[in-house]
């Protein structure tokens, strides 16, 4: 039996054992109520997609003109309907359906597949392994600096479906890239489930800025499972933006900083609306000498939403440090926020710290701005917009402006 | 410009102002002196319309309009501006943002950058509003916002407190600018200055002065006369006057 087959069998076996394993956090989802999606038709240009699909993609950060993107990937339901690399970037990166990539490069399975995320983490990872899966494979070649973002969009267009996605991103030694992934729904979709496995490998002296924008519906469930492994002097920045209602999302991405002087930063902007149940965290594991990390979370709780903002720092290495910064504004008496910072150190020379604060918008601040002539709504909007500080994401100006506009639109709708 | 009749104000149910009568005409600057807790800041906050300050009796007339129960922001848009003694910090909101909003409200068209330069605040414009500012920086930030706001009635609460000697002349000069003190005729802007030490009077000419004690104005007169009296005798003789 080949090594690949042996590993594949082992994965299947572990997944089968974990099929009923509930996740540590978040409400338990009955996977049997969702059907697998139908196949969709591929397109040769994003502009040929139906208008409502284009609009939904744009709402999650997709540039359908691709003018400001180096490459694109789009999966509709269960089909990879589009992938493209702009000419100028042809020798810098590759973007493929993950299945095609594993067929072309069999070593991917052994080397990367379920190597950052555990296949038996819970029933969702197990389900993903045991069912037909798609997703993207993105590789940025060694030494290449990709100055325009690579974009991807994962979208469902039918109700009551489960979208099963497994992505792998490899940023090779000395390379630098930004990936923006939008997860979205066609307008008529009200319910369903998105399972998204994402495994990131940031090699020596490489940098990956990964920004995920989620755009769901009030009865939709989401269970992403993401993890990164970062090598010597590698930098992994993970941004997460959720500004629309969702029935439930539970996600606790992690970064293992195995390399010397490796760095991870997790930044989250969460807007709790309607009955959303949002359980989002980030975990930084300091294993490399001189490794460091930071996790910043900003959350606004509106309506009857609940936000669990988790953060975990684990140190196994002296001469490492990490900091958690979690702040929330509770704007509704029917909402709830629970900030859960965890620090675990097994290294006497490591320094871990956290700060967390939850409160209302200070009346004193609102009145102060009103004394300059702003209405109360304008003052609250200015404060909340400032609180959801897009600059923490460290994005290029164009993306930063785009997310600022999204935040502003969300605020207007929620007022 | 401003007329206050028999104003009674309570804070958290406790009466603070107990029948204030005051008239400030167009272009005039008044100073308010008095011991701590006498009601000076309460009077300014009540004119400004801060919600915590509850008018229980009396009226406030501004530009011939009864503003006694008018909302805070409406009063600001009508032309009342305040330099707070202890302004709050507002994280996430940049000084440049609020200055820019004020500079283009009410038909204003104030060149924010030029004002920032005069106040040595160019490097503070992209910082969070008042966050981590020193005493002098806070005063300059307040003045910047007020100049951008371009109010017709300026309320200054202890403009010299917490300011070092290097900054006080700058602040005095900018208050003069704010109050259009360069205009001898046709001055439209009026001001009320609460001052504890009176240092600001070295830089800003005021027309009238009042001593406010225990929620009442107990003495009024020329600003310099009133200040000299307090400097020489404290507030002891005012108590006797009552």
Word description of this protein:
- The complex is a heterodimer of chains A (415) and B (242).
- Chain A has 415 residues and is an alpha/beta fold.
- In chain A, 20% of the residues lie in helices and 40% in strands.
- Chain A has helices at residues 3-17, 51-59, 98-104, 107-111, 123-130, 363-370, 376-387, 397-414; strands spanning 71-76, 79-85, 93-97, 136-140, 150-156, 161-171, 176-185, 191-202, 207-215, 219-230, 235-242, 248-251, 254-257, 263-272, 277-280, 283-286, 292-301, 306-315, 321-330, 336-345, 351-359.
- In chain A, strands 2-1-5-7-9-11-14-17-19-21 form a 10-stranded mixed beta sheet, with helices on one face. In chain A, strands 10-12-15-18-16-13 form a 6-stranded parallel β-barrel.
- In chain A, strand 1 and strand 2 (79-85) form a beta hairpin.
- In chain A, helix 1 crosses helix 5 (123-130) and helix 6 (363-370) packs across helix 7 (376-387).
- The longest helix of chain A is centred in the C-terminal third of the chain and has 18 residues, at 397-414.
- The mean pLDDT of chain A is 94.
- Chain B is of the alpha/beta class and 242 residues long.
- Chain B is built from 8 helices and 12 strands.
- Chain B has helices spanning 40-48, 72-78, 95-103, 112-118, 135-149, 165-178, 223-233, 236-241; strands at residues 2-11, 14-24, 29-33, 53-62, 65-66, 80-83, 90-94, 128-129, 153-157, 190-194, 208-213, 216-222.
- Chain B has a 6-stranded mixed beta sheet with strand order 6-9-10-3-11-12, sandwiched between helices. Chain B has a 4-stranded antiparallel beta sheet with strand order 2-1-4-5.
- The radius of gyration of chain B is 17 Å and the shape is globular.
- In chain B, 48% of the residues are buried.
- The mean pLDDT of chain B is 90.
- Chain A binds chain B through residues 362, 364-365, 367-376, 379, 382-383, 385-389, and chain B through 48, 50-51, 71-73, 76-77, 81-82, 84, 87-88, 90-94, 97-98, 101-102, 105-106, 128, 145, 149.
């Amino acid at each position: 039996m080949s090594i690949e087959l042996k590993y594949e069998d082992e994965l299947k076996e572990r997944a089968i054992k974990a099929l009923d394993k509930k996740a540590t956090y978040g409400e338990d989802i009955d996977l049997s109520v969702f059907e697998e999606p139908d196949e969709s038709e591929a397109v040769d240009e994003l502009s040929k997609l139906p208008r409502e699909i284009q609009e939904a993609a744009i709402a999650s950060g997709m540039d359908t003109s691709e003018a400001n993107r180096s490459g694109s990937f789009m999966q509709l339901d269960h089909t990879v309907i589009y992938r493209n690399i702009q000419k100028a970037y042809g020798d810098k990166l590759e973007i493929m359906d993950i299945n095609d990539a594993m067929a072309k490069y069999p070593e991917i399975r052994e080397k990367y597949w379920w190597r950052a995320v555990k296949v038996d983490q819970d029933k969702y990872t197990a389900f993903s392994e045991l069912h037909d899966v798609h997703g993207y494979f993105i590789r940025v070649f060694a030494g290449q600096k990709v100055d325009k973002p690579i974009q991807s969009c994962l979208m469902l267009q039918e109700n009551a479906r489960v979208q099963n996605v497994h992505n792998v991103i490899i940023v090779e030694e000395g390379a630098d890239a930004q990936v923006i992934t939008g997860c979205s729904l066609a307008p008529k979709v009200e319910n369903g489930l998105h399972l998204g496995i994402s495994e990131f490998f940031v090699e020596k002296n490489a940098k990956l800025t990964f920004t995920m924008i989620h755009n769901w519906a009030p009865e939709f469930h989401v269970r992403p499972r993401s993890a990164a492994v970062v090598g010597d002097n590698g930098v992994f920045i993970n941004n997460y933006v959720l500004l629309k209602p969702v029935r439930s999302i539970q996600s606790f991405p992690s970064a293992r900083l195995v390399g010397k002087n490796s760095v991870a930063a997790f930044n989250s902007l969460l807007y709790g609306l309607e009955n959303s149940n949002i359980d989002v965290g980030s975990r930084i594991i300091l294993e490399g000498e001189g490794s460091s990390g930071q996790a910043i979370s900003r959350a606004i709780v509106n309506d009857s939403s609940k936000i669990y903002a988790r953060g975990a720092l684990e140190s196994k290495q002296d001469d490492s440090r990490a900091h958690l910064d979690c702040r929330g504004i509770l704007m509704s008496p029917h909402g709830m926020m629970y900030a859960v910072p965890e620090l675990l150190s097994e290294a006497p020379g490591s320094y871990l710290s956290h700060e967390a604060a939850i409160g209302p918008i200070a009346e004193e601040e609102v009145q102060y701005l009103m004394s300059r002539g702003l209405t109360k709504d304008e003052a609250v909007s200015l404060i909340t917009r400032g609180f959801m500080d897009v600059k923490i994401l460290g994005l290029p100006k164009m993306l930063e402006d785009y997310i600022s506009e999204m935040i502003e639109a969300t605020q207007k709708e929620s007022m | 410009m401003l007329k206050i009749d028999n104003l009674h104000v309570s804070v958290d149910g406790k009466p603070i102002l107990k029948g204030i009568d005051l008239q400030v005409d167009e272009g005039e600057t008044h100073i308010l002196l008095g011991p701590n807790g006498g009601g000076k800041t309460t009077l300014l906050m009540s004119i400004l319309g801060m919600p915590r300050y509850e008018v229980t009796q009396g009226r406030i007339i501004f530009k011939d309009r009864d503003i006694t129960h008018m909302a805070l922001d409406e009063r600001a848009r009508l032309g009342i501006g305040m330099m707070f003694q202890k302004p709050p910090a507002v994280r996430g909101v940049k000084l440049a943002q609020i200055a820019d909003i004020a500079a283009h409200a009410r038909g204003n068209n104030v060149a924010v950058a030029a004002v920032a330069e005069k106040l040595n605040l160019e490097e503070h414009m992209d910082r969070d509003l008042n966050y981590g500012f020193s005493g002098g920086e806070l005063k300059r930030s307040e003045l910047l916002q007020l100049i951008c706001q371009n109010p017709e009635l300026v309320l200054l609460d202890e403009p010299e407190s917490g300011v070092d000697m290097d900054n006080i002349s700058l602040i005095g000069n900018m208050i003069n600018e704010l109050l259009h003190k360069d205009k001898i005729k046709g001055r439209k802007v009026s001001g009320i200055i609460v001052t504890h030490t009176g240092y600001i009077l070295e830089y800003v000419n005021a027309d009238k002065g009042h001593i406010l004690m225990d929620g009442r104005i107990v003495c009024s007169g020329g600003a310099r006369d009133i200040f000299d009296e307090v400097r020489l005798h404290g507030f002891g003789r005012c108590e006797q006057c009552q």
